[in-house]
Design the sequence.
């Protein structure tokens, strides 16, 4: 569908969906930002400075700590892929649109402060009914500001907008319209990236299932973000179905208790499975 058709359809149907948007905003639960330090190091080897900047995804809403949120997950995967020691920093603000990130977060980034920047932006521009021309201008200014603060040879990666038509919080037809608008804004982001050396637009390929969203129905949970960055952070315990056999071992309860306590002290989640045959194991 051409972009102008998407714009026309969006604005023609918005009066029907506007009350739904106001109701969803009032009813949506609010979650705090992830706890923990907003910077860290992971891996070993030559140094690589990573800046994650943007909206609530960067601030880690829906996750316990920033290490298990997008910035920490991406830094770990980047360290494994490059063999570098990644020095990562997260600058996020819930509810920030492109203009808010440029005005409120970008001034905290010193010139030459990063080799790679990952930007999450656009969802709040959609939800605030930002005009496409205004979004284009705001995003262009943000990308240019980041390029001006990159180290020589640095790269800015613009994350594609998520598939907002899958957000459980949004009822229909609001969900459909949000997805339509997100596609339009994502195309604008891709166009701006193509016009700038040193900027790469990375489409969001992973689409979380309904159970992979945080309880607010708007943000992906830690498990979904780990799948998107190729790391699950899940420990699996496989138990036989014959419980009497399992619990006849006095060490079984000690083992389970230790696994639970250990997972609570780290960024790992604990999943158990019951099997009845060796083949299932």
Sequence:
């Amino acid at each position: 569908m051409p972009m102008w058709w998407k714009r026309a359809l969006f604005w023609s149907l918005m009066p029907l969906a506007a009350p739904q948007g106001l109701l969803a905003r009032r009813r949506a639960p609010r979650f705090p930002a992830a706890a923990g330090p907003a910077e860290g190091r992971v891996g070993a080897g030559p140094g690589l400075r990573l800046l994650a900047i943007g909206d609530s995804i960067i601030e880690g809403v829906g996750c316990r700590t920033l290490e298990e949120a997008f910035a920490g997950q991406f830094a770990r995967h980047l360290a494994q892929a490059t063999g570098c020691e990644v020095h990562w920093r997260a600058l996020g603000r819930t509810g920030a649109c492109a203009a808010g990130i440029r005005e409120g977060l970008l001034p905290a980034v010193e010139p030459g402060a990063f080799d790679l920047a990952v930007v999450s932006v656009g969802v709040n521009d959609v939800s605030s009914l930002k005009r496409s021309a205004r979004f284009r201008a705001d995003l262009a200014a943000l990308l240019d500001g980041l390029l001006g603060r990159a180290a020589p040879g640095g790269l800015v990666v613009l994350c594609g907008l998520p598939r907002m038509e899958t957000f459980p919080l949004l009822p229909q037809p609001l969900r459909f319209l949000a997805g339509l608008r997100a596609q339009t804004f994502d195309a604008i982001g891709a166009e701006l990236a193509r016009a700038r050396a040193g900027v790469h637009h990375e489409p969001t390929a992973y689409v979380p299932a309904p159970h992979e969203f945080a309880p607010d129905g708007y943000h992906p949970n830690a498990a979904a973000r780990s799948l998107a960055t190729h790391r699950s952070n899940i420990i699996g315990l496989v138990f036989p179905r014959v419980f009497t056999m399992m619990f006849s071992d006095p060490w079984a309860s000690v083992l389970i208790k230790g696994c639970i306590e250990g997972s609570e002290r780290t960024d790992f989640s604990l999943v158990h499975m019951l099997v009845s045959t060796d083949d299932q194991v």
User: Anything to note?
Assistant: The chain has ten helices and eight strands. Confidence is low (pLDDT under 50) at residues 222-232, 241-247. The first strand starts at residue 39 and ends at 42.
